[in-house]
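TICKET: design request
STATUS: open
ATTACHED STRUCTURE:
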């Protein structure tokens, strides 16, 4: 993006290392990003759940609170990034000091991501995107005329997969999430292979104490080469810092 704040300089060693110092021009000499070269960086974080209309009053949604992505956006900002936050439906309070793009449907989310991803150094996709949308959204409120009612659904585009495969020569780092209720690691490995992103952050959404709508998470970071690292249960803000440190290591 072209609104990268000037004077932000990030140098080696773990973006949140305590050894970081603030430079005269207001930059952060701290860590990690840019592999030793002083660099400005930008990130796009996508969070929240998509909302797919059935009729003017009903919709298909999911339990995403937006918290995970909000914390990643905050952590990236704290690490000196120029951040754009794209959010679907979310119940948590979004950060007020970060550029915020509100979307509803998966198709709108896709548009917003396409508009931004190419110029970003890192795209982090924590959103819970509906895999399907209603084929024919009813123009009027559906009446309870019949004993049974079927909704025909069509597949939504896979945003993560599409941006990963269209990167060309750009060195945009793409990180996906993986929400599983069973066989977490097996499914996460399949997912990183099918999506073509650089990392997958896998969380177990069958647990109440982590994942959806919790202030905490416990995740596995899976790399393209299938290296796996577990981040022990912690608050989502701490998990976010650790994720950024790992992906920029
Ligand atoms: O919002 P919170 O309440 O804090 O909860 C956080 C979370 C559980 C939502 C988050 O940690 C998480 O796991 N997000 C991913 C949810 C998800 O939809 O995962 P998935 O396994 O279905 O999808 C895999 C990846 O593909 C995800 O990065 C997803 O954003 C992406 N995707 C999925 C479908 C689709 N049509 N397009 C996509 O880009």
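STATUS: resolved
RESOLUTION: sequence designed for all positions
ATTACHED SEQUENCE:
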């Amino acid at each position: 993006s072209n609104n990268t704040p000037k004077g932000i300089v990030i140098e080696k060693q773990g973006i949140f290392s305590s050894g970081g110092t603030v430079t005269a021009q207001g930059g952060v000499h701290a860590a990690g990003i840019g592999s030793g070269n002083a660099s400005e960086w930008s990130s796009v974080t996508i969070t929240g759940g998509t909302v797919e209309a059935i009729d003017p009053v009903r919709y298909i949604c999911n339990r995403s609170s937006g918290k995970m992505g909000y914390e990643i956006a905050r952590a990236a900002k704290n690490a000196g990034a120029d951040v754009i936050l794209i959010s679907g439906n979310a119940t948590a309070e979004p950060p007020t000091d970060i550029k915020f793009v509100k979307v509803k449907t998966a198709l709108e989310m896709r548009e917003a991501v396409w508009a931004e991803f190419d110029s970003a150094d890192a795209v982090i996709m924590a959103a819970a995107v509906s895999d399907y949308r209603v084929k024919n959204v009813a123009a009027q409120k559906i009446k309870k005329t019949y004993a049974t009612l079927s909704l025909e659904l069509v597949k939504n585009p896979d945003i993560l997969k599409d941006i990963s495969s269209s990167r060309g020569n750009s060195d945009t780092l793409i990180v996906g999430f993986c929400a599983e209720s069973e066989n977490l690691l097996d499914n996460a490995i399949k997912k990183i292979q099918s999506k073509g992103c650089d990392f997958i952050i896998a969380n177990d959404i069958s647990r109440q104490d982590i994942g959806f709508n919790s202030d905490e998470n416990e995740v596995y970071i899976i790399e393209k080469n299938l290296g796996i690292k577990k981040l022990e249960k912690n608050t989502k803000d701490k998990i976010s810092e650790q994720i950024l440190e790992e992906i920029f290591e």
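CLOSING REMARK: The pocket of PMT is lined by residues 47, 64-68, 106, 125-129, 131, 156, 158-160, 176-179, 191, 203, 205, 211-213 (CB under 6 Å). The mean pLDDT is 87.
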